[in-house]
């Protein structure tokens, strides 16, 4: 159901205005980032951050940064829905563990290179 | 200023109840995780997620998981305060870039090991 009408309204409500049953105006801060065909994106962001907090975050940013902010908020919200305990901190923890593993692997290879270089035949060039 | 009194209250309000000027009872869902001496931890979480969303997240979790959930929420909130565009997704992006760099470093070392092994003098043992 669309709640838009009149000259100042967009032709259809965005996902945020549909969800919150508000009139979607041309000034809607959500409309450019929450199209009507992606209702879950807004539902997740609303459930985790709340529409009013997201409004504040977006309004405090220049328009050029808002799309990236919405992408990261949607990513974090989805991660929190999937993993209510760790959210996307779980992903950070996993990648940090992976970094430690890779660093250990590098150290082993460096040791192997040193060992092989010690055994390399002397050259006269 | 403490808002607690009576038998069902804790001896002092937690940071969440102080912030929201509510009476902090023995059943307060925030009290075990937001001590009065860490007011910023709650202020950040409240600003980014909203107290009511955090209440819902915590109430949906078993008590044994709530401390970890609060730690990750506080981490994400602080990251979003520092970087309103990318939040902790920025940290994930940086660690993923670091992983790619380390994988490239490993590949170089593996190539170096192969090269050195090819030049290794034959042994008769």
Detail the topology: elements first, then pairings.
The structure is a homodimer of 125-residue chains.
Chain A: H1 15-20, H2 39-49, H3 51-59, H4 63-82, H5 89-119
The percent range for helix content of chain A is: 55-70%
Instruction: Determine the N-to-C terminus distance of chain A.
Output: 82 Å
User: What letter string, H or E per element, gives the SSE order of chain A?
Assistant: HHHHH
Amount of beta strand of chain A = under 5%
Query: Biggest interface between protein chains, with counts per chain?
Result: A-B, 44 and 44 residues
How many domains make up the coordinates of chain A? 2
Q: Describe the biggest sheet of chain A?
A: none
Please give the count of helices of chain A.
5
Oligomer: homodimer
Number of strands of chain A: 0
Structural class of chain A: mainly alpha
Overall 3D geometry of chain A?
elongated
Low-confidence segments of chain A: 1-10
The whole-number mean of residue pLDDT values of chain A reads 87
In angstroms, what is the radius of gyration of chain A?
A: 25 Å
Family (chains A, B): Belongs to the LOB domain-containing protein family.
Keywords (chains A, B): Coiled coil, Developmental protein, Nucleus
Coiled coil (chains A, B): 92-119
InterPro entries (chains A, B): LOB
């Amino acid at each position: 159901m669309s709640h838009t009408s009149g000259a100042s309204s967009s032709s259809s409500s965005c996902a945020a205005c549909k969800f919150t049953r508000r009139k979607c105006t041309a000034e809607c801060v959500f409309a450019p980032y929450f199209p009507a065909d992606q209702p879950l994106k807004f539902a997740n962001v609303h459930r985790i951050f709340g529409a009013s907090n997201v409004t504040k975050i977006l309004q405090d940013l220049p328009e050029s940064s808002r799309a990236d902010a919405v992408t990261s908020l949607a990513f974090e919200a989805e991660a929190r829905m999937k993993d209510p305990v760790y959210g996307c901190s779980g992903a950070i923890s996993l990648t940090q563990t992976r970094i430690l593993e890779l660093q250990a692997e590098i150290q082993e290879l460096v040791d192997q290179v040193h060992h092989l270089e010690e055994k390399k035949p002397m050259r006269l060039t």
